[in-house]
Amino acid sequence: MCPGIITVQNVHKSYGRTKAVNALSFTVREAECFGLLGPNGAGKTTMMKMVYGKAERDAKPEGLIHVSGFDPQHNPLNVRHLLGVVPQDDNLDGELNVYQNLALFAKFYGLTGKAAKKAIEPLIETMELVDKRHSKIRELSGGMKRRLIIARALLNAPKILILDEPTTGLDPQVRHMIWDKLRQMKKNGITMLLTTHYMEEAFQLCDNLIIMHKGEKIIEGPPRQLLQQSMEKYVLDIINKDHVDKIQACLDSPSIRADLSKETLHVYSDNIEALNEISALLEPGDYFLRFSNLEDLFIKATGRALDDAG
Known about the structure:
- By secondary structure, the chain is α/β, with parallel strands linked by helices.
- It has 11 helices and 13 strands.
């Protein structure tokens, strides 16, 4: 395994009889964004908590986690000084305003008075919250709250940013705005460990990722490379299955792979002409031709959709 700022080797985590993380290994290099992609219950958040010391890995079999040379289980304070954590849940203090929330958190890092202000003001500006500095939390939109939580995570100028579902529940415009902010942070040298079940978020932000299923690593690599190596290039989504009998003979072609997912038949191929021939047999509105994506790769690898629970 290549050296990295985060190293995870053969890590296990169980809750009773439930195996949340099973023999997981990966390396995060400095100034890259590394993603953990998978459905709810895949073990993403559990793995995150072990990295920043909120959960302990199983003692047996023995595994290893190093964060910039420190083990979060044995050196939690050293690790926490290196990290900024953006949790999945909104845990802001609703009785305080934007500036007060940041000032309160700054005290945990020994920042008060002018030192706190020097740290807080650039973050309020970067996260475009200048006009909201005196607003109470209940007055903020969901996107503003997420930006404030990210600003709070950056107060100690961390080397590593832990992002657990950072844009869940946000509208597309706000999500893209946060992606732009995270890209800029990565350019400035911040390493990111990201969990998400949004395929597009992983594709847009991650230099490398692993797809997880039931606590295990299914596949690992740069997202574009994974698609090129492991997926057909094109997908024909057939929404109206009433006409599938019209194309049954076409599905027997060796250049075609078909997969039924809920109410949609997905037909995969590197040969776009073959898919065009199939679509010509269907009615307009019964199909959609597109490029394959990470969700298609996940379904191929695990047989499950990214938003399935369990």
